[in-house]
Amino acid sequence: SPGRGPAPGGRGRGGAGMNFTQSFKLAIKSLLLSKMRALLTMLGIIIGVAAVIIITSLGNGMQNYMNAQFEQLGSNLIQVMVYGRGEGGTRDVNTEDMYALVEKYPQYLSGVTPYVSATAKVRQGTEDFDRTSIYGVSEAFYRADTQKTMQGSSLENGRFLRYIDVERHQNVCVIGSYLAENAFRTDPLGQTISVSGVPYMVVGVLAESGDSTEGSVDDVIYIPYANAQRLGGGYGDMYLMTSTDRDTASAAKGIIENRLFKTYQSSDYYMVMTSAEMMDAMDSMLNTLMMILILIAAISLLVGGIGIMNIMLVSVTERTREIGIRKSLGAKCRDIRSQFIIEAGTTSAIGGAIGIILGILMANVLTNVIALVLGTGNDGFVAMPTAGGIGVAFGVSVAVGILFGYLPANKAAKLNPIDALRYD
Q1: Do β-strands 127-128 and 198-206 pair in parallel, antiparallel, or remain unpaired?
Q2: Potential cystine with 408: which of 312, 366, 367, 418 (Cβ 3.0-4.6 Å)?
Q3: pLDDT at position 85, please?
């Protein structure tokens, strides 16, 4: 305070200079004297940091959740899509060709199944299930080594389709947990469900892997792929294949692409993608989206920095006489400059800390909301910020305060002590 003389323990002539601790205490005191103004000053920083924490938390949570889902599929899964019949429409690769490829390269490829999406009316008794997904697959879709399907679902009751079911086009099916709970009043095994007017006997029930609601991943029927093709739902243009292990996945992909190129003479008619590439593609898209959202959130930090600069300029004007007294007692320009920079940095640091706390709390709330929507429970989606993300957010908030506080601090440091003492 200008009326009380220099602070004790200061450095420089007459104690006019202040060390970091004294400047920090003065900054805290200044904030406490004008709580509402301080809060409004920090608001942009708080919102910006909280937004960055929430976005990074959601991004990391979604990335981990999706990677976990892909891990269930296995690192050796290969998806093959065939779009057409090549030049002139005469060339084609059929299911037998894909089976022959697996038999030819057993050291790289371990299994293949057509994956035919069919469209048909599903009925049980008098009730229709309009949103049920119907897929045609072979017995290889269920992997004996992992006791799961190629898409990560496990059996709860009964069995999966067998070679004889697929070979003889038997009217048997495996259903998801939603149909098991809602289409049948008792154990569905051995009972029939109508697919396009044809009764299919239920031989297996899959365990719940989603939220077991209508239209979810649990609202599904698997039938022999030839039966699905007859329903008019596809022509075997999609295949799921597995390599012998993670290390051979890349070589297996090359073998498949070479075989398809030999037939179609162009890579425009097919796509081959491993599960690792699927993960990388999804991670890349998520990272791009996160960067865009973080840049949008950074606008709040910019606004917060401008707010700090404006308030510090007001503070310099209000404390002009104090600055004049300190300079007349021997304070150097760097002492005045550092005091105001520390005050600006302290303001933004406190705002950043509040923003981090708010961001973490909001991330926890969103974790529960999203887990409820996805039906994943406590073991599914978790939006938690990383220590690195928190550190960067806090560091940026302090840097913004110091950067935007430099102009007012420099203005204060350059004040003429005589003019400052005359200021009223």
Answers
A1: unpaired
A2: 312
A3: 64
Residue 354 has pLDDT above 70, yes or no: yes
pLDDT band, very low/low/confident/very high, at 233 (cuts 50, 70, 90):
low
379 pLDDT above the threshold of 70: no
Taking the C-alpha atoms of residue 199 and residue 188, their distance in angstroms, rounded to an integer, is 13
CA nearest neighbour of 220 among 318, 99, 137, 315: 137
Residue pLDDT, tens place only, 268-285 = 888 999 888 888 888 888
Residues in the chain: 424
> Which stretch, 258-262, 304-308, 389-393, has highest mean pLDDT?
258-262
What six digits make up the tokens of 153? Answer: 């679902």
- Residue 166: pLDDT over 60: yes
Give CA–CA dist 399/349, Å, rounded.
9
In three-state secondary structure terms, 221 is strand
**DSSP character string of 213-260:** -TTSTTSEEEEEHHHHHHTTS--S-EEEEEESSGGGHHHHHHHHHHHH
Contact 324, 371 (CB under 8 A): no
- Report the amino acid identity of residue 199: P
DSSP string, 358-398: HHHHHHHHHHHHHHHHHT-GGGS------HHHHHHHHHHHH
Given a cut of 50, is residue 73 above it in pLDDT? yes
User: What six digits make up the tokens of 381?
Assistant: 């989606």
- Number of Cβ within 10 Å of residue 190's Cβ equals 10
Spatial separation of the C-alpha atoms in residues 365 and 383, rounded to whole Å: 9
If DSSP states are collapsed to H, E and C, what string results for 295-362?
Answer: HHHHHHHHHHHHHHHHHHHHHHHHCHHHHHHHHHCCCCHHHHHHHHHHHHHHHHHHHHHHHHHHHHHH
Query: Residue 66, SS3?
Result: helix
* 8 A C-beta contact, residue 154 and residue 206: yes
Asked if 396 and 336 count as a contact pair (C-beta separation under 8 A), the reply is: no
CA distance 12 to 6: 11
